[in-house]
Design brief:
Number of strands: 4
Number of helices: 8
Order of helices and strands: HHHEHEHHHHEE
Largest sheet: 4 strands, antiparallel
Helix content: 40-55%
Strand content: 5-15%
Strand order of the largest sheet: 2-1-3-4
Shape: globular
Structural class: alpha+beta
Distance between the termini: 34 Å
Length: 206
């Protein structure tokens, strides 16, 4: 299956519909294995969850600071901030092989994995629309146990999973064992007003 995915990706979006079907099937197979080994994966799950929270805190704080500075110059400016898993294949992943970069790039490709187009959070952070949204609400930690009802809470109930984790495991084609080894994140800010668009990129490595 992965060989066929690499072949399709080498053709660069020749058949994204077929790719999405294969990515979904691949995810289901890998997640089925992961759920049978949940206890063994807990430390990596917790570490990823904490790293994602730190990256989103960096995004949240920097987006608000940048927006306040920009509106001094461009009063009608709007800012959209998104956080992505690093485009580099995770160094911590226990399976390292030459072909992993191709599979990882395919998973990160919005044409193949469209729910991921806004990053690890389904809608990103948009200012000034979300100006009054607290960080806890942004990451979904303001309501204990709001996330994680889809898994075995016997193991996961103390993890306080955030909405980014939920989005990745439930709505994208990333398998659990694809992303829990990620510790680096890419942050993208898009600032627009009536006359221009400014795109900036940053990284977060907790």
């Amino acid at each position: 299956m992965e060989n066929e995915l690499k072949h399709l990706y080498g053709g660069r979006m020749d058949n994204p519909g077929q790719a999405r079907t294969m990515l979904k099937l691949r995810k289901e197979m890998l997640d089925h294995w992961a759920y049978e080994h949940q206890q063994e994966l807990l430390s990596e799950i917790a570490a990823f969850n904490n790293a994602a929270l730190e990256a989103l805190r960096h995004l949240y704080d920097k987006a608000h600071a940048t927006y306040k500075q920009m509106t001094l110059i461009l009063p009608d400016a709007e800012l959209s901030a998104k956080c992505f898993l690093s485009i580099k294949y995770p160094k911590r992943h226990p399976y390292q092989a030459e072909d992993r970069e191709d599979i990882w790039e395919a998973l990160c490709e919005p044409a193949w994995n469209p729910v991921y187009k806004n990053g690890i959070c389904p809608f990103g952070l948009n200012l000034p629309q979300d100006m009054d949204e607290t960080f806890e609400h942004f990451v979904g930690t303001d309501e204990p146990s709001a996330w994680g009802g889809f898994i075995n809470m016997e193991y996961w109930h103390d993890l306080h999973l955030n909405s980014a984790f939920y989005n990745l495991i439930e709505d994208t084609f990333f398998a659990l064992t694809d992303f829990i080894f990620v510790r680096e994140f890419d942050i993208e800010n898009s600032i627009t007003n009536s006359e221009s668009v400014i795109l900036t990129k940053d990284s977060a490595c907790p």
